[in-house]
């Protein structure tokens, strides 16, 4: 695919969707500041309440949603290429659950939810990714997408149960950790955004650097070795990039599932299976999906808000069914 086709078929539509959803995120909310008052703020006017709502609440929230969406979209694309499996998604494989459990454990051991750094979630995400992929590859089952999802579901259930036990034991942790049970970008501010930005930037850089080698690995380890790549090192870098991206996203927004499945699926429909093209479009399309889910979550139960993780699950479940039912999947 030429750059012109990539631009017209993938990058421009994804960038347009991102722009529209970002503006909607600034204009729409569950509070009293409606689109007209919010638009006046964006045009340089507006009253004090509207300015506070748009600039101090919605703008940082939108920035966090953009960062989280880009991270999860890229993580999904890299993880699918690493596992050679269209169902390899951070939420389905328990990577999000591993990151959340690491944060829960840190809080139970005495840390505060406000001071737990993103690196704790990164370590949990890395452990979850390695355990799920390792379990799926037992007895040569790593290429079976159904077994991969089952391994991820089993790991997620085990880790979720362990988190519940820890929260039952420590009531203080239960009060602080409710945020981590369902993902949300509500209440996230500039401080949280800046704290995870270096982690997410490092993850995106690693993903971009390893994408050519991962494309070679799709042809087989022998071919990749012949082209000068080292498969083990490539997979290690890929898993590290997924851990950084998912851990950073989970640290700031909690566990948000299905974004890593929906975004590569949509990007693949636009630009085909090439990983570098897929990664470029996913970085733009991921924020659009998260922002859309966030905007809808503000409106469906007004004046309250539905958790973002619940909304992405509602969006993602039909996509999961479509992928499973596609002709590429093995019959059960």
UniProtKB/TrEMBL annotation:
Q: Which residues cross the membrane?
A: 62-79, 91-110, 116-136, 148-169, 193-220, 241-266, 278-296, 308-327
- What InterPro entries does the record point to? ABC_BtuC-like, ABC_transptr_permease_BtuC
Q: Has the keyword Cell membrane been applied to this entry?
A: yes
Which subcellular locations apply to this protein?
Cell membrane
Keyword vocabulary terms for this entry: Cell membrane, Membrane, Transmembrane, Transmembrane helix, Transport
- Describe its membrane topology: Multi-pass membrane protein
Query: What Gene3D superfamilies does this protein map onto?
Result: ABC transporter involved in vitamin B12 uptake, BtuC (1.10.3470.10)
PANTHER family for this protein: FE(3+) DICITRATE TRANSPORT SYSTEM PERMEASE PROTEIN FECC-RELATED, FERRIC ENTEROBACTIN TRANSPORT SYSTEM PERMEASE PROTEIN
Family per similarity comment: Belongs to the binding-protein-dependent transport system permease family. FecCD subfamily.
- The entry's protein name is FecCD family ABC transporter permease
- Species of provenance: Streptomyces desertarenae
């Amino acid at each position: 695919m030429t750059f012109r086709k990539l631009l017209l078929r993938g990058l421009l539509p994804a960038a347009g969707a991102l722009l529209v959803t970002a503006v909607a995120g600034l204009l729409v909310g569950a509070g009293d500041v409606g689109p007209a008052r919010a638009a006046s703020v964006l045009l340089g006017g507006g009253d004090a309440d509207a300015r506070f709502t748009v600039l101090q609440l919605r703008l940082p929230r939108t920035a966090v949603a953009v960062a989280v969406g880009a991270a999860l979209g890229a993580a999904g694309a890299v993880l699918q290429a690493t596992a050679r499996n269209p169902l390899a998604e951070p939420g389905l494989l328990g990577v999000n659950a591993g990151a959340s459990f690491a944060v829960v454990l840190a809080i139970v051991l005495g840390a505060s939810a406000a001071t737990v750094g993103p690196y704790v979630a990164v370590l949990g995400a890395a452990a979850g990714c390695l355990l799920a992929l390792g379990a799926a590859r037992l007895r040569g089952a790593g290429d079976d997408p159904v077994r991969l999802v089952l391994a991820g579901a089993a790991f997620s259930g085990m880790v979720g149960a362990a988190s519940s036990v820890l929260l039952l034991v420590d009531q203080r942790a239960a009060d602080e950790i409710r945020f981590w049970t369902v993902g949300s970008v509500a209440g996230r501010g500039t401080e949280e955004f800046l704290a995870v930005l270096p982690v997410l930037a490092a993850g995106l850089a690693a993903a971009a650097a390893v994408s050519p080698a991962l494309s070679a690995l799709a042809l087989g380890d022998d071919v990749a070795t012949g082209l000068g790549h080292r498969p083990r090192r490539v997979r290690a870098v890929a898993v590290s990039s997924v851990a950084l991206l998912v851990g950073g996203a989970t640290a700031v927004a909690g566990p948000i599932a299905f974004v890593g499945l929906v975004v590569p699926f949509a990007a693949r429909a636009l630009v085909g299976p090439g990983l570098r093209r897929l990664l470029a479009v996913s970085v733009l399309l991921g924020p659009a999906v998260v922002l859309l889910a966030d905007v809808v979550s503000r409106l469906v139960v007004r004046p309250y808000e539905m958790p973002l993780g619940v909304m992405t699950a509602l969006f993602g479940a039909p996509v999961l069914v479509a992928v499973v039912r596609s002709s590429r999947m093995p019959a059960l």
